[in-house]
Amino acid sequence: MFEQLARQMWHQIEPVHATLYFSPAAFEEAAKLGYDIGSRWPSYFAWRTAVLGAAGPRLVAATYYSFSPTMVADHVPAIWAVATPGQVLEARLRAMDRTLRALLGDHNDVREAAELAVRAAESIQVAHRPLAAANLELPWPHEPHLTLWQAYTVLREHRGDGHLTALQAAGLDSCEALVSFASVGAAPVGNFAGRGWSSEEWAAAHERLAGRGLIDAEGLATPAGRALRGQVERLTDELAAGPWQALGEAGAERLVHLNRPLLGAVFESEMLPTTTTLGIGKVQVTA
Fold this sequence. Notes:
This protein is mainly alpha-helical. The chain has helices at residues 2-18, 24-33, 41-49, 57-64, 69-75, 79-82, 85-104, 111-121, 130-136, 144-169, 174-183, 199-211, 223-240, 242-247, 249-269.
């Protein structure tokens, strides 16, 4: 039961968290720090990595997993020559303050939602969850809307950290994880170009997966490939279930109700891309 709830709650919190990477206010704050905003990646790496301190490229590649180490090295450690992690974290909160105030409008009473989200976030087991643990170690902001966003960030990184465990358990390396994900229709292959893998690296991963009988010559998943991706999704949900079990079904349902105006505002804003590499709504978990 809580595995299914974990997936449902991911659909609730992921879009809210992700506004950080697409909000005009976030790009404005990044530009003030000195980041090139012609591409979203310099600020993305800064916003998401700053909780780890002035992390180097190996640590970032390890915690992000599906990004090409070459692409990571193009941005890390260069991002720390522009601004310190502390400066980035301060700007991150300013960006989300502006973003959330604009999204919430008259629906600005999120105190109860923040309390529920914090309760779930503070229940997580941090072992093998570096990004979740690092975000949980930050002090909670004073403003409820920022507390809510930070709790959502802890919870989405908790799920993400567990997803990497599931990918490794399935024997999928960093590039293979994306090729296999594309093979089940999670997103068009072209959408994964932003992760930085070369066409040669993609083709080599395709060949390795084909050799395991997981994809066909056209890059589509075989029955075995679909079964493996189902295994990945099921284990991801199992590993993400803990905070929702701690919060309880009634608490999660209440959070969904309270989150609805904010989630609706995110989608109505159209700031998020219409097609992402998350696979929300496309990847099915089969028994």
